[in-house]
């Protein structure tokens, strides 16, 4: 019998250390001062004016480029004063920028600006800055700021270009509509869950049709769909995939971002929880092979209890929840309690292992059938009712889940029942994770190789002639995409 443990709430590790705090400063209608005319001055004036600021520029000898700026702005206003700045010029400014060539002049400007109560930036002098400019992706009112803390400006610009390519320009119209509709939506839906449901539908529609302007018909349909949606709590069983967070489906991501509570297993990679919204509670309801585990009845009861209080509950499982994930018992528990339950499939461990190693599970010259088998029964022993004739079939690829404890007995019995001893066999540990390792051999010798290697972690057994390309390889090969032949 495995030792029991109770579900327990867990805490996110929190953000990694930040080099800078990304903040956004509203400047519309506010006064900004820029002193000097160094190389970056014209661009900064344009950015400040684009944010709706009234910009006073003080420069005794403005460059031709700086003189041209007032005629090029798209918003705000710019006044160019062809003289040096004075301390009195800084009073009433919300933001002051020093674009001065001389270090001493710049220090004096920064001291005076701080004395006037302004936020200060000094061009090309990060040690004097309260705030710094970064690369900007402008889909206003959707604005993305990118900073490398001065370490790699070109890298930041490249990241900006990649993000710009991902964000259609039409998003500006959708975000503008969100701003215009927000008060009405808040007045219509008093509950947080309903408001969130509305904005999720809004976002789905924006991503589906980013290049057109949203209309009042969109608003009416979104309001109607939200009002007609079922109310109350629900449970969603979500497949987290074998480990690599990039294997999550879009539907799984949406479920994680909508969840109030996430119940997850030990085998779920920690980085996958980073995709959940930060307000969500996370609870470990771990089920470890042959180790301390939460009772299935306790997990079922917890799911139902949370959903009955109106929570959106995600039951997050490694791999695919419908493949040896006890999904059937959890679905039955929810249905018996009258709780709506849905399933989001995930990449199975078998698919993840085959893809990472570049192996076909159903090579047409070797496999006519693919079968998934469990390596142990409820007691942790080799199941009594395995179809040994099917396991010994040379035209089948067999994938055995949770095989470590019964590996030797399973392979020995399969050989006794007619499986060729030379049939290629492969054991993959920690599928799709950075510490993935593969151990290969034959049905006759793989168990000995496993004992000698001493590898650890969740494992998957793959047996069949579809893997015949594996020949006399080095026993152990680590890395999620490597297989020595």
UniProtKB/TrEMBL annotation:
Task: Specify whether Zinc is a keyword of the entry.
Answer: no
Write out the entry's keywords from A to Z.
Answer: Cobalamin biosynthesis, Lyase, Methyltransferase, Multifunctional enzyme, NAD, Oxidoreductase, Porphyrin biosynthesis, S-adenosyl-L-methionine, Transferase
EC number from the UniProt entry: 1.3.1.76, 2.1.1.107, 4.99.1.4
Q: Which residues form the Tetrapyrrole methylase domain?
A: 235-447
Q: Which residues form the Sirohaem synthase dimerisation domain?
A: 172-219
This protein's pathway reads:
Porphyrin-containing compound metabolism; siroheme biosynthesis; precorrin-2 from uroporphyrinogen III: step 1/1; Porphyrin-containing compound metabolism; siroheme biosynthesis; sirohydrochlorin from precorrin-2: step 1/1
Taxonomy, superkingdom = Bacteria
Q: Name the chemical reaction catalysed here.
A: precorrin-2 + NAD(+) = sirohydrochlorin + NADH + 2 H(+)
> Is Metal-binding found in the keyword set?
no
Q: Which Pfam families match?
A: CysG_dimeriser, NAD_binding_7, TP_methylase
Stored InterPro entries: 4pyrrol_Mease, 4pyrrol_Methylase_sf, 4pyrrole_Mease_sub1, 4pyrrole_Mease_sub2, CobA/CysG_C, NAD(P)-bd_dom_sf, Siro_Cobalamin_biosynth, Sirohaem_synth
Q: Name one GO biological process term.
A: methylation
Alphabetical list of NCBIfam families matching this protein: cobA_cysG_Cterm, cysG_Nterm, PRK06136.1, PRK10637.1
Q: Which family does it belong to?
A: Belongs to the precorrin methyltransferase family.
What name does UniProt use for this protein? Siroheme synthase CysG
Q: Which taxonomic lineage is given here?
A: Bacteria, Pseudomonadati, Pseudomonadota, Alphaproteobacteria, Hyphomicrobiales
* Gene designation: cysG
